[in-house]
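Example (one chain per record):
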Amino acid sequence: MTAPINDDNAVSNLLPNSRQEERQAAQSRKMAYPYRFPRDLRQMGGRYTVQQNSDRLLRLFYLERRLAQALGSWTLTIPDFEVKVETGKHIFFHADAAHRLRERLLEQETRRSDIENYRNADVDKLIEEALFAADTPELLVGMHLAIGAAMERTYRRHIENTCAITDAPTIRVVRTILMDYEPMLQWAQAAVVAYIEGGVDESRLEAWRTHISRLLGGLGGICGDETFTPMPLQLRSSHGAYERGTVPCRDSRFVTFKHTGDYNVADGEPRFELGSYDDQRLRFVRTQRDEVDAIEAFGTFLWDIRFKEFDAEYFLARITWDEARHTDLGHRTMLAIGYDPFELPNRLTSSTCRGPMEPEFAMAEINLFGEIGVLKTIGSLIDEAHRREDTILEHISDYVRADERTHVRKGQHILKVMTDLGMQDLELRTRELFTECLVSLGALPPGASFGTLSREEIEYYIGE
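Predicted structure:
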């Protein structure tokens, strides 16, 4: 490591060549100057050269990238509503940290291709083992209370050890990342406490946290430069490769359905007159609450296309966070208009179809049919909400529309990364696959004879 510049030994051979009259004149000018600004107490000197700094940031970038991917792979499998929504947010926090670190690495003359193609076997071993959590509580313990907490400590040490002046841009990046880490880890800790108070065996969770922490210690810590400690004797990941789930999970508070995309059909009879404003309003709000299926979709896409292109992963992570916000909006709006959000059945049709599907076709259904379908109708809903002075619906739908427009644009880039198929071939194959899925679910009218469903029919039956 480089010694701090303010070390006496580092400056002992640097002798000033001041001229007495110039120094006295400078002192006089300073005394006459009327303003006494706050003194900058930062000191010169740090432990890292540019190369050492870049090496550490590159490993941290890779860890953040892998954490986003890993959490994305679990989005279908997490049953608990609050945890699924919060995980959608955390996926973006990690991807955004990676994005910020990448920008700093580019400033320190690390080539974009070297960042994009960087791999680290120790990091992969750590993430692979954490992915083998037995259930959601273990996932939170491993990803957050073991790895995430160690990441936070590493970031804080980096701020302490790098030069506060020469490396101020890195410090600002790291402090921005820590702004997300603090609430993320606090939430994870509280969620684990909730699981324990609800009956999950605390000793099992503590054993898993210790196991992941021991593995991390055996790899030399987050940056691989700490004292190496003994590795665990056995790893769950040694028994085979990790495979993400394909079946959407919900907690016991929900009544679910997948035999249709139409809420009125699922409810048995319409709650309001078909096509009325009240009918459209409730459908929109329920659709937002049920964007849990979009958290699942974009999270799994992030896992399924991992390492194809970082920008595509980053866009997917951001969209996942947006869908988590839409879910929260739907849930809160249900409360605001007088419903218990868990009294209204939750639609699983979309996730049931997309879960096992190749990502390019699942993504095409959302981007080419679902999100574009929303944009076809949401403008008139906003106008009607404004006319009726329905301020709640006007407010949330206005923001949802802006998000969906952004998703359509970013989705085009993501699809180009996912597949080489032309748009016509991609759309046709997507329609074929979703027709087959809806037939298998019994989501089409009994006795009906369908060929491949049209774009409009996919929009209706999937219910995006």
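Caption: Strands lie at 256-257, 346-347.
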